[in-house]
Design a protein that fits this description.
13-stranded antiparallel β-sheet; 29 strands; disordered N terminus; 18% strand; alpha+beta; disordered C terminus
């Protein structure tokens, strides 16, 4: 029939056309139109046939055979080359967070990261239960958990830090700031820090109703929205993945193991875009090998990157009690490795009915096997079989009694992708992964690497049903795949990297606590001898100063003065000043002078002067001067005189003769005491009071002639000292070099020698002098106050007053206050008032701490729970390394022929870092173990080095023979 139809169309004969119809009908307008269209099509086919004949003739002249012509120029086909556009990927298109394959529809969510570092165990357990309930709400669906990484945004960190510093401190930034930032950026890039990102895919449908992805998307829109609401309201806090999230996930999965520095265009993928994804990376795998090679050339990279990738399958999982026994979930444990790994897990959340049916089958099978042993063979069943029976019964009991979803069962297939630059490095990392789990888990390195690696790509199916793991949602939640280490601000000084449950870069902004979080700027830096607290104090100060923050430092031990030395830190030349207070002017530490007067411009609000608040601060300053003067005078006395009623009365009368203003002088108190002794004033006093006044005059006059006394008691006729002009100074380090600070044991004994008492008084006065600098500039400018050896201050009332006032004023004056001490017990942490230091700590950095009481006090400062096992961590913050000592060289006869220094090969300082949590309600904190890292600035590390310089006593000795020849040996002497 069709041939007759075509013949009628070509000849245009209406009669033949009518004969070809099954039912003849009268020719109308439509018939004439069809006939005309037929003639037009016939003419086009004839022209195309002629063109093909011409092309064929031309190709024959070029030597093309008839076989090749028959293959390339088939009748009815175009002569143009045909390109296959079909991709081997199952993915056909994406719309937002939805991925379409030829059959399936998946929607993807980004799971918000969480950190359980130093959290109370009950809180961790509650979080696991809530996550288990969230997984249980997805019953009947297949999930795809993808844990991947992104490079730490070093470029963004550098730009944001630079922009922030210029905006706040542009006119004060040192000239070497660009080099400082470049060194930090280069070091961070070389460290290859990455950030963990966890995505959760949920299968919405297993068949496609519409070919068009947009129609399919509209069809499932309601289900997708419902899924988003369920997951968003759960403890997983999962949100719909953005286009950028999907781009990272897809490209990271395609270029598995290749560290992508950036991504390209962020948009949906159409069917025509999918083939280009396969061009982004090339996968090759040799038969029977246990790894594959991935080659890729990411955006912005000019050289192809090649990585060896091996996919390991979780084959067995032992019992792990989290959090009581381990500090991280069983999937989170890989974050402790110093190289990034990726997880891919397909998980089926089994309906309760299906689980019960499976259990009944298992119980019946086990019962038959037990009966077989007992009745057929009259022997006891193996213990392994009885354990299976008990476990099945326990699972059934859990399901029957569970009403919250904690006993819902899952079936999962868990893969880990490990990559290395070479096969040798890959094998080392695989062994490191297995070592991280020890006997708690087994990983199989199967040979079907290509297809197992394909599972990591969204939309790809499960490669094999082997190695399936059955577990409850509670056990799945205990994996904590989204667990990580979260601390820092991504802007500000580079502190180092986390070293607890994960390895992540840590950047911290010194002033966002005051500017954005409205919390205290007090930071406690604690740790025993050699813990690195002074090193960290100096490093933070250096980083803040390089960002343009004006800093004043009190350094009794004179370790931080090198920051002002151009020979060590040339970039601060002309911006740093070193002041040895022990060689200062007479009256430099006058107790009346070191307490600053409030400035009226600091009490303007909305253009109006707050007179009441200003007068209150004036009164506070005068009261502080009187209290400080009284503490200093009493501290010079012996313990018996300090408790004498006559001394108390006489000192009070003498001090009342001097108005506590900043221009007053302590020497006037000595004059008043002499007048009391001569009965010229306060004649109502008894003879014993006048005798005691004379004794005090003699004692203070003697002390006023000492080097320390001259700092406190100026000459009677001397004019008040003017303040130092440090407008151009970013860093001022005040030191008490030459003064011996008493130890904590001496202070605690109460029997303090005179020199130690004077040292404590001078330390307190020096701290007040340094603190007064914060009141002399703009109230809004960023400032830093650093005080080392803070334990001495807390032993004196005026010192404690200083610590509290600096912390409470930190928000108003935009001040970061750093207090360093060896022991947290040196500070008042248990007070109930809001001025207690325990309530004022905005951040804390705790190093190695050994004593049990100190550990508990340090945990309180950190905001971590006590008596749950975290105390021991504080005693293990000093990394194991070679002991510092000397190496003894001996000859074959055992005679010592020389000595040389043995240095500690690991100088990294470990701390517990605690900051306020922006996302939490109330006084909650993020707490992580970190390694403080100054490797980007080796000259600063050298300046802050507190250990003695190494020595070598072999200089000048005759070089001994090779020990292998003379049988000599080395021995380490601690």
């Amino acid at each position: 029939m069709s041939n007759k139809w075509q013949e009628a169309m070509q000849q245009g004969e209406a009669e033949k056309l009518n004969d070809a119809q099954a039912k003849p009908k009268k020719e109308g307008l439509a018939d004439r139109a069809s006939a005309g269209l037929g003639r037009l099509l016939s003419m086009q086919r004839s022209e195309a046939k002629e063109r093909r004949a011409g092309v064929k003739a031309a190709l024959k002249q070029q030597g093309v055979t008839d076989k090749e012509l028959a293959r390339d120029l088939k009748p009815g086909k175009s002569s143009k080359a045909a390109l296959e556009s079909k991709s081997s990927l199952k993915m056909e298109a994406t719309i937002g967070n939805v991925v379409f394959t030829d059959t399936d529809t998946w929607c993807w969510f980004s799971v918000m990261p969480t950190s359980h570092g130093f959290s109370p165990i009950k809180d961790i357990e509650e979080a696991i239960r809530e996550d288990a309930k969230a997984y249980a709400k997805l019953v009947g669906r297949r999930l795809h958990v993808r844990s991947t990484t992104r490079p730490y945004p070093v470029a963004s960190w550098a730009k944001d830090t630079y922009d922030d510093a210029v905006a706040a401190n542009g006119d004060r930034i040192p000239e070497g700031y660009g080099d400082f930032l470049t060194r930090s950026q280069t070091h961070m890039q070389g460290s290859n820090f990455s950030e963990k990102w966890v995505h959760l895919g949920v299968k919405i449908s297993s068949f496609r109703r519409f070919k068009d992805p947009k129609r399919e998307y509209r069809h499932h829109r309601e289900t997708i929205d419902d899924m988003g609401r369920v997951l968003g309201a759960s403890s997983l806090n999962a949100v719909e993945a953005t286009n950028e999230d999907m781009e990272w996930l897809i490209r990271r999965s395609i270029a598995l193991g290749v560290n992508l520095p950036r991504i390209g265009v962020v948009s949906d993928y159409t069917e025509d875009d999918i083939p280009s994804l396969e061009d982004a990376a090339v996968w090759t795998a040799d038969p029977l090998t246990k790894h594959l090679t991935v080659s890729a050339m990411p955006e912005g990279v000019t050289t192809e990157i090649e990585r060896k990738v091996s996919v390991l399958t979780l084959s067995r999982l032992g019992d792990m009690t989290f959090p009581e026994e381990t500090q991280s979930g069983w999937m989170q444990r890989t974050d402790r490795l110093n190289f990034p790994v990726e997880w891919s897990a397909f998980i089926d959340v089994i309906p309760e009915e299906k689980t019960k049916s499976w259990l009944r089958g298992r119980l019946d099978l086990i019962a038959d096997q037990v009966k077989h042993y007992h009745e057929d063979h009259a022997i006891k069943a193996p213990k392994s079989l009885l354990r299976q029976d008990a476990m099945a019964m326990q699972i059934q009991e859990q399901i029957d009694s569970d009403h919250g979803g904690l006993a819902v069962r899952t079936i999962g297939w868990y893969r880990v992708a490990v990559s290395g630059a070479s096969e040798e490095e890959l094998n080392q990392r695989v062994q490191a992964l297995r070592k991280a789990y020890g006997t708690r888990a087994e990983f199989a390195q199967t040979r079907n690497q290509y297809h197992h690696a394909r599972e990591f790509i969204p939309g790809e199916p499960l490669a094999t049903p082997a190695y399936q793991r059955r577990m409850s949602t509670a056990m799945l939640a205990a994996a904590v795949p989204h667990g990580t280490a979260e601390i820092g601000d991504r802007t500000g000084i580079h502190m180092g990297y986390t070293a607890g449950t994960a390895i992540r870069s840590v950047a911290w902004h010194t002033h966002w606590d005051m500017e954005r979080r409205d919390v205290s700027g007090l930071m406690m830096i604690l740790g025993g001898l050699g813990s690195g607290k002074t090193f960290a104090l100096g490093g933070i100060t250096y980083g803040a100063v390089m960002n343009g923050v004006r800093a004043n430092v009190l350094d009794p031990s004179d370790r931080l003065g090198r920051l002002c030395d151009p020979a060590y830190v040339p970039e601060l030349e002309g911006k740093a000043r070193y002041v040895n207070l022990m060689k200062g002017r007479n009256g430099e530490l006058n107790p009346y002078r070191v307490v600053a007067d409030p400035r009226k411009e600091h009490f303007m609000k909305d253009g109006e002067f707050q007179e009441e608040e200003y007068l209150r601060e004036v009164s506070f300053a005068e009261g502080t001067r009187g209290s400080l003067m009284n503490d200093v005078l009493r501290s010079f006395l012996s313990k018996n005189n300090q408790t004498s009623d006559e001394v108390e009365t006489v000192l009070s009368r003498a001090m009342s003769e001097v108005q506590p203003v900043r221009t007053a002088s302590p020497t006037r108190i000595l004059i008043a005491l002499e007048k009391i002794a001569d009965a010229k004033i306060h004649t109502d006093l008894q003879q014993e009071h006048r005798i005691k006044a004379r004794d005090l005059v003699n004692e203070y006059s003697r002390l006023a002639k000492t080097s320390i006394g001259k700092l406190i008691f100026p000459d009677p006729d001397a004019a008040p000292l003017a303040d130092d002009d440090d407008d151009d100074m970013l860093l001022t380090v005040y030191t008490l070099n030459g003064m011996s600070i008493p130890s904590a044991e001496v202070i605690a004994s109460g029997n303090i020698p005179e020199s130690a008492r004077m040292a404590m008084a001078v330390m307190t006065l020096a701290a007040w002098l340094v603190q007064s600098r914060i009141y002399m500039g703009d109230i809004n400018e960023r400032k830093l106050l650093a005080i080392d050896e803070g334990k001495v201050l807390n032993q004196i009332d005026s010192g404690r007053n200083l610590l509290t006032k600096s912390a409470t004023d930190s928000r108003k004056f935009n001040l970061r206050a750093l207090y360093a001490a060896q022991n947290a017990t040196h500070f008042d942490l248990d007070g109930d008032s809001e001025d207690s230091l325990g309530n004022l700590v905005g951040a804390a950095l705790v190093g190695d701490t050994q004593e049990a009481t100190a550990q508990k006090a340090a945990l309180k400062i950190l905001g971590a729970p006590t008596d749950v096992g975290y105390e021991g961590i504080l005693g293990q913050l000093r990394p194991r390394s070679k002991k510092r000592g000397e190496r003894v060289h001996r000859d074959a006869d055992g005679k010592i022929i020389g000595r040389s220094a043995v240095e500690d090969t690991n100088k990294k300082r470990h701390f517990i870092f605690s900051v306020r949590d922006d996302t939490a309600v109330g006084n909650q904190r993020r707490i992580e173990r970190i390694v403080y890292d100054l490797d980007a600035h080796p000259h600063v590390m050298k300046a802050l080095a507190s250990a003695p310089a190494p020595y070598d006593r072999t200089a000048g000795l005759k070089e001994p023979k090779e020990e292998a020849e003379i049988g000599g040996h080395d021995e380490n002497v601690a």
